[in-house]
Amino acid sequence: MRIGLLIIGNEILQGKISDSNTTLLARYLIAHNRELSSTMVVGDEIKSIHQGLNVLFSSCDVVITSGGLGPTQDDVTKEALASWFKSNISYSQEAFEVASKNYQRFNRPVPSQDHPYCYLPQGFIALENSTGFAPGLFMQSEGKYLLSGPGVPREFKSLLEDHFASLILSQLPKSEELIELYTVRTKRIPEEKIFKVVDPTLWEKLAAFGSVSSLPHIMGVDIGVTLKAQSSREMENKKSQLKKIFLHSPLAGHIWHFGVTSLEELIVRVANEKKITYGFAESCTGGLCSHRITSVSGCSQTFLGSVVSYAESVKSSILGVSEQTLAKFSAVSEQAASEMAQGVAQKLKLDIGISITGLAGPGGGSSLTPVGTVYIGVWARGKSSVYHYHFPGEREQLKQRFSQGALYLLLEELQREN
Amino acid sequence: MRIGLLIIGNEILQGKISDSNTTLLARYLIAHNRELSSTMVVGDEIKSIHQGLNVLFSSCDVVITSGGLGPTQDDVTKEALASWFKSNISYSQEAFEVASKNYQRFNRPVPSQDHPYCYLPQGFIALENSTGFAPGLFMQSEGKYLLSGPGVPREFKSLLEDHFASLILSQLPKSEELIELYTVRTKRIPEEKIFKVVDPTLWEKLAAFGSVSSLPHIMGVDIGVTLKAQSSREMENKKSQLKKIFLHSPLAGHIWHFGVTSLEELIVRVANEKKITYGFAESCTGGLCSHRITSVSGCSQTFLGSVVSYAESVKSSILGVSEQTLAKFSAVSEQAASEMAQGVAQKLKLDIGISITGLAGPGGGSSLTPVGTVYIGVWARGKSSVYHYHFPGEREQLKQRFSQGALYLLLEELQREN
Predict the structure, then answer these.
(1) What's the burial of A176, exposed, middle or buried (CB within 10 Å: 0-12/13-18/19+)?
(2) pTM for the complete prediction?
(3) Is pLDDT at B155 greater than 70 in this prediction?
(4) Which of B16, B43, B299 sits opposite A215 (nearest CB)?
């Protein structure tokens, strides 16, 4: 049983936006014990869409398309599907009703009957869209399945969730296997060092359990093993054996999590469990640490707030960094980081205050303090510690690395506290 | 002349990361008057890579691959290329030297001669990687070109920039056309309304100049026209005609920019030109507005800082929002937004203070103040104005929409000031 994705959109091939529907579909399928075989991206021309359908249907039983279902003239997916399936587009009362429901859901007047949404290739059915206006499409013929959704990721996701299981999964032979990605997240160690230096036998040990992957992120590597099992008992058994291998590996000290929880989710969970309040004094990260934490629902229990102290005047007036420190050591210094962390903790009444001051560039570097330099201060239980790093990369990457460094230190401090 | 991209990586088909190399390559090609024809994503198996090469080389003269060049055992791109091109992998002194240079650039000891980086399919050449360790690959045969780069976007990008022009572009027939994407950015109007209600003849007028696309974003639609011309004079002429069409359209009031500048870049540019200082009091956006602004190099000239006032205690202690306001109207109210904007402007000594207070959910909503409600305060020249919106979406989308709403208002205020 092979499943392929055809992404239709000039905007992706012209670099205006990045595709995220592959990720959405892949995660959805794994959660249903299925795998995505391949994705193809083609432009908004009927010929290219036909080529994509030819390629994917030559090896897949199920093809999902995204994009080109909207009301504008560059939306040609329906025309392409009609000609590929040797069908004709015609008015469909059912499609009109589905489109009307989509509009009513947003308290909008129903579309007129000559609206493109009311027209479908014959043999296709229209699907309700719970997050947008354009109906999805479905057709099934000789053991092949086609599901078409809008390109907007929110709408593509809801189309999958609303229709994939009932229209396609329920008709396919039941998956005989459970599939799970076992993920282990490491910090502060490069990929090559893990498998060449720290634990040269690790890869082979893991490969005995399933296909292994190693995914380097900003300042961390995720190691993944794709586990397959016939029963949930067998799955649990494999997972516990794998965990033992990792815990006995020299890599153990670099592991910060077994599972797919993000760093910010883990921080929120630990802080909430321990009822430890925290916040940031952000200079070079400019709000990114706070943004990452506040993307996690429930963070407000213990994340109280932050000061983005970009200008020196804000560092001194709000955080109480002394003018002397700024004049003598500069704002990018151990002393400033220490005073910023203490300042934000005291002003906002936090148990833990984390400060980040550094140079994200591209300008402003010197031989003493090059771009990529960062000081991260951790104020907790009455005292500050300051960590000094130098990272490579450009402005946006450096902001990401700085924030990752700060969040690692915050997690360690949270896990240390009793 | 067709160019295709083959992305190799289970991590993408398993949903662990999203592809961004398509976007990088597409933008690089357009800047060189070329277009990306198609992208295909396949897993880390030799058979799948061969299928991808078959599909892309059947219609393309140039195929670029990304991924699978690293040192771990799931990296099989070299093996797949060798067998597809009927070549053998062998030690290459040249590859050893290229790899050594890659290591020396990071002050790391050179790899041993049995390192996988020193082995290549015969007939291929190794390419220096200016941002990582793994060498890229190049081969040319019977008018077909293959360039392989690492999957890490930073490394893929530098491989393109360092080698694509000299190895491939210089050998291709010179592009006879200039290509440019003419982009117009609109705000606060849905895609369907633009072309069905506000200006029903717009699409056809634009289509006379080139292929038209319409790309809905968070709270805005970008309209793009792909212009082709034989000379830069013809190109400029087309652009000025297009601009006139837009300026005479009823859509004109919704246009906030002609070009591809991002909202945050435009804000930084206008604020710096006018020397107007600004900052945010962020509640529900949790630092996102500040993060977006500080992603723009040069923002520190006029962006002074922000307060992320997540907890009520921070709203009152740092921003001076009165306890009465919080008790009587709650933190998500016009009154709180007004006091927050004024508070941040006065405390941080800003010309413009922008506040954002709302409910990003999923919890905390009520019938009076449902999730998606936001109040945005603009304090400037001694007085506050507060704007009230209600947006659809989930937590992360809402944070994006709230921040977009705040940045639109900030830009309008900056453009209004003299």
Answers:
(1) exposed
(2) 0.90
(3) yes
(4) B16
